[in-house]
Amino acid sequence: MENAHQKKVIFGKQKNLPCIAPLLTTVEETPKIISAQVRGHVPKWLNGYLLRIGPGKFEFGKDKYNHWFDGMALLHQFKIEKGTVMYRSKFLQSDTYKANSVHDRIVVSEFGTLALPDPCKNIFERFMSKFELPAMTDNTNVNYVQYKGDYYLSTETNFMNKVDIETLEKKEKVDWSKFIAVNGATAHPHYDPDGTAYNMGNSFGSHGSCYHVIRVPPEKADLEETIHGAQVICSIASAERMKPSYYHSFGMTRNYIIFIEQPVKMNLWKIITSKIRGKAFSDGISWEPQYNTRFHVVDKHTGQLLPGMYYSKPFVTFHQINAFEDQGCVVIDLCCQDDGRNLEVYQLQNLRKTGKGLDQIWCSYENLHPKDLEEEGGVEFPQINYGQFSGKKYRFFYGCGFRHLVGDSLIKVDVVNKTLTVWREESFYPSEPIFVPVPGTNEEDGGVILSVVITPNQNERNFLLVLDAKNFEELGRAEVPVQMPYGFHGTFVTI
Questions:
Q1: 209 contacts 203 by C-beta, under 8 angstroms
Q2: pLDDT reading at 285 higher than 70
Q3: How far is residue 406 CA from its own chain's centroid?
Q4: CA torsion 321→322→326→331, rounded to 10°?
C-alpha cells in the first residue's frame, strides 16, 4: 500500500477547505468538573449524561501516531441537570495508555502505527523482537456500549473496558475471547427491547476465517458478571479463507441480523507478518472492487442463515441507519460510498494538511439523496430514535454532513417526504447527533438533538448544542473553555 502523501487518494468536489489540524492534536484532560455557560436554554426535563469518546493523545515522547484511529481514548462527560451543564474529561487508563506513559514512547501497536523495538535493547534483541507476537491494544476509543446494564468502552479488538459513567474511571478490562471463540467484536451492538444484545465478531485460525453472530443475555445471574452467557448463534464462512472482509457494524430487524460482506479485505497473511515486515496492521487492509458486496441474513431466533445469495455492486459502508421488515421484505438503510479507499484518507498527515493539500485527499461521496443532500457532502454518523424505532419502519434519521473531512453540519432527513433540514455554523464542526426523546412522547421526532460542536479557532469556545428535533432550531448551547479533539461516538444516559 502506498503512503497517502505519495498519491491523490480520492478526488472530490470540495476545494479550498479550511485547516482543521487543531481538531486532531493532543489535548489536556479536564478531570475536575467545570461549569458550562448556557446561552439560550436547556429543557428542564433533560437530565442525564451525554458521554462521548474519541482519540485525544497522538504522541508519547518522540513517537507519533500515524492514523486518526490510533490516538489514546479520551472520555468526555456533559452532565445535564435542571437546565445546567457541567463538563469533565479523562484519558482512559488502559494498559496501553499506562505502558506508553511509563516508557514515554509507543510500545503497543495500533491500527495505523507499528510500535518500534525498545531502543535500549541490543541489535540482536531488537531483531528477534520482530518475531514476537504483537500485543493487542486495549485502547478502546470508538464507542460506549451496554451489556447487562453496565457500560463498556469498545473498539474492534477482543478487549473492552468497563467504565463508571459517573466518575469516568475504568473498572475492569474484559476479554471477549475468554467467553467465546472470537478475535474481536464491533463497537456497534444492537439491542432488543428486553436488553438482549447482539453483536458480530471474527475468528481467524487454521480453519480459515469466520464471521460470528453473538448474543449476550440481558440480565446478570451474579453481580460480578460481565458478558457471561455470551454465545455464538451463527457462524458465516468468509468468501475467501485468508481474506475476510472488514466491517464496522451490521443491521438488525425484529427477526433478522443483516451482515454485509464488503470488498474491503483484510489480508491475514499481511496482518500476521506485519511486525516482521515493519508495517502497521492497516497495511493488510485493501479495497478490492473486483468483488461484489454480499448480504447475509440470519434468523436471530433460530441462528439459521437464510438460503440464497444476495449481491450488489461493490461499495463500502461503516454505519447502518436502520433496518426493518416490510411486506415480506427486509429493508436496510445505510451510509455507503462507491470507493473504499477512505481509510487511507484518515492518516493524520492528511487530516492536518492546509490549503491545496486538503483538496488532494478529500473523500468523495455517493449521491444518497436528491441534490440537496449531495450539496451537504453526503451524510455519516447516522442516528435515529433508537428506543422506539430500531428495527421498525421509521421516518426520520439524523447525521453529520461531510463537506469536509470531519462533519461540518447536522442534518435531519425525512425518508418519507424526501426532505432534509440542516444546521450549520461557519468554522464549527459538530459531532454525531444524539436523539433524546421527551419523556412520555410517542412522536418519532419528539425530543432534542445533542451534539458537541468544536472549532479550530482559538478565540471561539466549543459547546454542547441542543436542537429541537422537530424543527431543528437551536434551543440553547453550553459553552466550555476547553480544547477538544474531534471524536467518534457517544450515548445519552438518563439520570
A1: yes
A2: yes
A3: 13
A4: 50
Residue type, 195: G
- 134 pLDDT higher than 70: no
Helix (H, G, I), strand (E, B) or coil at 70: helix
Residue type (1 letter), 494:
T
Residue 289: C-alpha distances to residues 4, 11, 265, 340 (Å): 19, 17, 10, 8
Show the CA angle centred on residue 259, arms to residues 189 and 245, nearest 5°: 100
**Which residues are within 8 A (CB) of 151 and not within 5 positions of it... i.e. 6 or more apart?**
51, 144, 145, 162, 163, 165, 491, 493
More confident residue, 356 or 89: 89
Is 489 part of any known ligand binding site? yes
Starting at the edge strand found earlier in the chain, the sheet holding 293-299 runs 251-252, 256-261, 293-299, 310-312
d(CA 291, CA 269): 19
Rounded CA-CA distance 453/439 in Å is 25
Q: What is the pLDDT of residue 364?
A: 36
User: Residue 35 has which C-alpha cell?
Assistant: 461549569
Q: How confident is the model at residue 369 (pLDDT cuts 50, 70, 90)?
A: low
Q: What cell does 413 get?
A: 432527513
Contact (Cβ atoms closer than 8 angstroms) between residue 358 and residue 405: yes
According to DSSP, the residues that pair with 436 across neighbouring strands are: 448
Alpha helices in 113-217 (DSSP H): 123-129
- Three cell numbers, residue 173: 478490562
What is the mean pLDDT of the segment spanning 460-489?
A: 97
Confidence of residue 357 (pLDDT cuts 50, 70, 90): low
Q: Annotation-wise, does 188 bind a ligand?
A: yes
**Polymer length of the chain:** 495
Asked whether residue 148 carries a pLDDT value surpassing 70, the answer given is yes
HSE-CB for 458 with a 13 A CA cutoff = 2
Q: Provide the pLDDT for residue 365.
A: 34
- Supply the pLDDT for residue 143: 98
User: Mean pLDDT, to the nearest integer, of 274-295?
Assistant: 90
A 10 A CB-CB count for 32 gives 6
Out of 29-43, 277-291, 424-438, 465-479, least confident range: 277-291
User: Can you read off the three cell numbers belonging to residue 476?
Assistant: 440553547
Is residue 404 a known part of a binding site?
no
Q: What is the phi/psi pair of residue 400, to 5°?
A: -105, 135
What pTM did the predictor assign? Answer: 0.91
> Which segments within 165-313 are labelled E, that is strand?
170-175, 184-185, 190-191, 197-205, 208-216, 231-237, 251-252, 256-261, 264-266, 285-287, 293-299, 310-312
103 is annotated as contributing to ligand binding: no
Candidates 153, 152, 189; CA nearest to 55 is: 153
Burial of 91 (0-12, 13-18, 19+ CB in 10 A): buried
Convert the pLDDT of each residue in 155-209 to its tens digit: 999 999 999 999 999 999 999 999 999 999 999 999 999 999 999 999 987 677 9
For Cα atoms 463, 467, 468, give the angle at the middle one, nearest 5 degrees.
160
